[in-house]
Amino acid sequence: MDLALFWIPAAVALVSTFLVITRRNAAHALIYLVVSLLSVAVIFFVLGAPFAAALEVVIYAGAIVVLFLFVVMMLNLGNTSVMRESRWLRPGMWVGPAILVSILLVTMVFLLSGLPDPGNTKGDMVGPKAVGNELFRPYLLAVELAGFLLLAALIGAYHLGRRYLEQRREP
Amino acid sequence: MAIEVPVEQVLMVAAGLFLLGLLGVLVRRNIIFLLMSLEVMMNSAGLAFIAAGAKWGAPDGQIMFMLILALAAAEVAVALGLVLQISRRFDTLDVDAASELNG
Fold this sequence. Notes:
The complex is a heterodimer of chains A (about 170) and B (about 100). Chain A is mostly helical. Helices cover about 75% and strands about 0% of the residues of chain A. Chain A contains seven helices and no strands. Chain A starts with a helix and ends with a helix. Chain B is mostly helical. Chain B has helices at about 5-25, 30-55, 60-90. In chain B, helix 1 packs antiparallel against helix 2. At the A-B interface, helix 1, helix 2, helix 3, helix 6 and helix 7 of A face helix 1, helix 2 and helix 3 of B.
């Protein structure tokens, strides 16, 4: 029973990831990618890592996928884009993601409402406090290096994107 | 609330996700799909770290996941800038169009 709570989101993750790599349309694939990331977040929660689960939702499914969506929408600036978007967002394509996400929702509600048999559960959930204590003591150098990496990425992305915008404006 | 899941099973799921991402990188030629497959692969590596951290009850797994998250964010920002450049220069999103190293 307890393992089912792990395998249901795992199966949702595998199915939705398979659907990501087989879609023909980038916007549809992105929606399935969100489903895949959300189900991995549920797996993190099941494994006792609630802070990692929250980060997965906020940064992966929130920020990174939105970045992808911006670029996909930006590349389709044309006369046909309105028509194409209405074709992308027809109601039929929401059925698959909605089913998968509702499976996840049921699992999550079941998890949060308390487990049926508390005897089987291991109490050592690693909370945000333990993570923060560890992160800013022995791993401080890694945090600084991650900051450098993000700064380099910021400058690189600005450089690449700026040239794109300037040369678009010329004609 | 943490459920005792055998670490082998979590690693199996992580390996499955990684294989799906690898398959996507090998099969698809659209660069947006390549990047999405890379995200899936990094995510599965993070899942393996979390599984290991959960096995020992240590926060180190979550810290490595956060570092992977920072890496993924940085990678996606630069790579999407490159996507804009490729789509402008070659008028396509096919990576094979950019396979020549001519200045």
